Amino acid sequence: MTDTPPIKIRLDKLVKRFPGQARPAVEELSLEIPEGEILILVGPSGCGKTTTMKMINRLIEPTSGRILLDDEDVTHGDPDKLRRRIGYVIQQIGLFPHQTIAQNIATVPGLLGWSKERIAARVDELIGLVGMDPADYRDRYPKQLSGGQRQRIGVARAMSADPDVMLMDEPFGAIDPITRDRLQNEFLRLQAEIKKTIVFVTHDIDEAIKMGDRIAILREGSQIAQFDTPERILVNPADEFVSDFIGRGASLKRLSLSRVRDIEPSTWPTVTVGDDPAVARRTLEETDRGSLLVLDEHGAPRSWVTAEHLQRSSGIDGGLPVATVGSAATLSDTLNEMLTARYSTAVVVDDTGRYTGVVDIDTINEAIRGMRSAERERQRSSLAKGAAT
Amino acid sequence: MTIAVEQLDVGLRRRTALGWLVTPAVLVAVLVALWLIVAGRQLDSIEERRVNLAFIGVAAMEHLTLTAVSTLLVLVIAIPLGVLLTRPSARRITGPALAVFNVGQAIPSIGLLVILAIVWDVGFWPAVVALVAYSALPVLRNTMVGIQQVDESVVESGRGMGLSRLQVLTRIELPLAVPVILTGLRTALVINVGTATIAALVNAGGFGGIIITGLVQNRQLVTLVGSVLTAVLALAIDYLGRVAEEVLRPRGL
Amino acid sequence: MGQRRSRVGALAAALCTALVLAGCGGGGTAGPGGGSLAAVDLSGATFAVGSKEFTEQIVLGEIAVQALQATGATVKPLTTITGTTNVRTALTSGALDMYWEYSGTGWSTHLKREVKDAPKDPVQLYDQVKQADAANGVAWLAMAPLNNSYAMGISEAKSKELNITTMSQYATYATQNAGQASICAAAEFLTRDDGLPGVAKTYGFAVPPVAVAELELSLVPPETAKAQRCLIGEITTTDGAVSANKLLVLTDDKKAFFDYNAAMTVRKQVLDANPKLADVFNPIAAKLTTDAVRALNEKVDVGGELPEDVAKEWLQQNGFVA
Hints:
The complex is a heterotrimer. Chain A has 16 helices and 17 strands.
């Protein structure tokens, strides 16, 4: 594969058979996890994704096979030492209720022998990193925190010794959708800074698409149905199992992966507030659109005006409200705005709020067509490469 | 055997300082009332032999010593054993071990005392053995339950971050099990205060001597004094146990 | 010829009369039901018979129960209540109709008189108790020779070793070896005026509390035999455990323990309604000697026989029942 970073974790023919089970939970899984990426293990309940993840830090010992971390075989040797190099977050978080937040976070650095000052500094740094005030929360006990706050501290605790690798087992599964959305976004922002290698287990395909750099869709026995980037999986599911798992609306899901800045917005005829209405009317006649976009003195969109509005009023004001999106907005959010706005058109604005273009249904269609043809092009070229070698 | 696990609300202390004074005040009032009743009566020669401060004082010391020593032994035997039995490697011996302790509690203490008197000896140590046999089971069970009721996800996250099994036991499981274990110990203490009344049958002294005399000689006052003293002692120890539980409960629970 | 016939006839008549007379005598041979008690008729009456908790009382209680049953009466046995005072209270309150009591116990415990004022003669003691107790509504039937007094026992080995066979010798030893002359006893003996406190006063010795081992009653004889925790122990003269544990009874040379002759005590109303009760128990009492009763106790405590069997055997052997 092109464009992959060095391999951080290699799973080599991992097998896990539990006593008394007819079929192994993990049937000879081999996987390469690139450094600095979020790898999602996703699949239906019971497919073995959590078992696989737990074998990486040997909370579950493999029946056979090898685990290599930075090309070092860690399958045997002291598992406790291994785990101190790997961050671990679980759905129920498991903060130690009898210890303060600071003591919780200080656990692994303490085990590694850090000095008190270094630990204290790190504790404050991490609490701040997950968006909370260290002075306020350092000495609190877990039961004094809300669910979302506990989740953040759970992540902070997992990062306390600055591990290169983190394992996360449905970390956002137990909280409400609004908080979950916010935490996911914050986590992605964090990962953009710290670039850790993360193995993330979820059963939710939407979360997988949103969070993952690469996704491994697993079926029973932890067998890989497809292992690829989210975009490619959505556009080209490997088989019926994968497309069933993605569910309907793959195209819509695909839209959530692109942002406004990734595509070419269209333009729309504009007038400014202070303009002469007569000039505006002539501009409107010359276009084939039914309305004009009114901008204020700073160039920020104010309203849509039709011929009726221009005839009635003496100046250019009033009109229909606009829906705006920033350049970082996903296409699916943009589609949402369009559907709720009049004229099914969303106005794109920059960081200062100035008009830069519009997105309408044609723009969206163009974008999707572009993704498909790019994917076909890629497949053709990789086939050609394969034929050549 | 019931296990009392008390839940805190978000505040960190359950009772106000004033609330903690109620029980001692009541106990002192009961003792004063008892003293007034006894002082107001002319005791006959039989009553006088047992209901006098010297005898009561000695009996109290003996009773306390019996209770303290037997509870200490139970602590040393049952708590480590309870911890051991929660380890996965102990799965096979858990059943037989619990059966032994069950038998110890099922045998009537008096019967056990007489058997010990015949095959071994009378006196302080056989009485202690009978007391230990009777009160060990609640401590053992509470220790096991205390550790088992620790939230699995807390243990898992501890193991997952690299704490060894021993570290998980000492840093997480035991501290979180302390409230339940202490409740078991308090139960054992109170049981021992009551059971120690039979120690008088084997020359180990205690308040039992007063109660038995009152019963056998049909002197109600003597029986009353012995029973009330035993009850007050039991309640006082229960109270001290609760104070200890409160003080030793980990913050944040 | 005529003379010979009349001599044989007279001899035969004399023999027959003698036989008949012998058959009609007290304690003699069979009527139709068998046993001399069959001759007493108390059928239709119901009696509640009690006893205290130790072996002798249980055996005596059984004797009383079976004796009354032989007369045709219905009997409700209440044979184990602990504590002299409790049994007595049951009698005076009406829960019990009768039980075997001891003269000494009547004097000190029930009549609350001073031990030092008691007559030294057993018959005098009994008479005074019987007279005084009538005022309490309790009637005492005939006294038995059986004298079950408190005594102190010592293991045979220790007795030989220290040359102690009397209470005075023990008192001397106790005064000279303060901590070593330890005593095993149960709560009742230790708190009764005529128990250890009275004995200590009479013989002039003092035992420090640490040298007193308070035990459950049944544990005293074995512990005394072991001779580790105590030198002497509380026993009673008819106790089967005495021979079972090879204990020697110390002679009460200064008569600290006064007499405890057994007699059946009956609530006065019951006796007035059934005067024949005297015919039942007086003959029985006459046969109850100290040695006889100790032998009965031994059978139960040492031989492991059941009290009811022992009682039945004794009644049969003495011709009371068939």
